[in-house]
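quick one
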Amino acid sequence: MIRLSLNARRSFWLNSKVTDGPVTRTVTPKELLYRFRRQAGAAGISDLELRVLLGHALDLDQAGLIARSGCRLDGDQIAVFTSLVHRRTEGVPVSYLTGTREFWSLPIRVNPHVLIPRHQTECVVERVLAHTCPAAKPGILELGTGSGAISLALASELPSGRIIATDISAEALEVAGMNQRRLGLDNIRFVRNDWFDGLGAREFEVICSNPPYIDPKDRHLDSGDVRFEPRIALVAEDSGYADLEHIIGTAPRYLAERGWLVLEHGYRQGETVRAIFNDSGYRAVTTHLDLEGNERVTEGRYSG
Ligand SMILES: C[S@@+](CC[C@H](N)C(=O)[O-])C[C@H]1O[C@@H](n2cnc3c(N)ncnc32)[C@H](O)[C@@H]1O
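structure w/ S-adenosylmethionine:
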């Protein structure tokens, strides 16, 4: 929950640019949403986002918000909501404002040190599960774990799995560790590493990653939520392919015989990524589509 000083609250209240006028102390959630709707809409904030922000300000889920839609709000609650809407109009992603994003039905805590997990990335989890047998206590390596979303989803499905998850960012690993404690999923070991460095001669049944893959020159980096996300989580040299290439080329040293590498990539990178897998000696190279029908995850099996 965001805490504001009295002066800050008064200032947000008086300077609100998204309300039609001062919001009275007797307003209900329903009236407050109505008041904000028009100007928030003009600023590109959807009704759903407004409701999520109001739920966060009131510490209620969406069902609770509906149940309490006729209750009177106090000044603090309105000030917190007003502040959240202001920051959203400045472009701050809703997930950074609420501090949470749902992934694989798990509430994942996020902050500006980590990428906000995308639902497309659930395809990585599906493919890793397709290659693992829970009874075999599979060894899994995730590279570039960020908030820990992929590994936490895998740990929730594979309690007997032995999962190692790495990231180069100490701040990201703090977030991942916090998520692990909150969710009570203790079969993951988070390690600070530059990709494979320092891993030793381990053999994993599956290695997976959603590495940075955006071309540093991509103009989409200047718009939307990505403006607020860590650049180290987004961009890679060589037109976005440097980290994908490094991982595909190095993974065979760490894969068990006939082990799988599963990689997320950009929706226009499928053809090139398949070529890199094939040139590096992988078999059964296949690209899977995300729910929008875009090429999103490519996998291959390495057999020496
Ligand atoms: C696209 S984000 C993926 C985060 C998370 N796995 C997800 O899917 O939401 C890429 C992650 O790779 C990490 N990363 C970037 N360069 C790295 C490197 N050289 N070694 C390890 N991790 C790295 C970033 O810190 C970031 O957390």
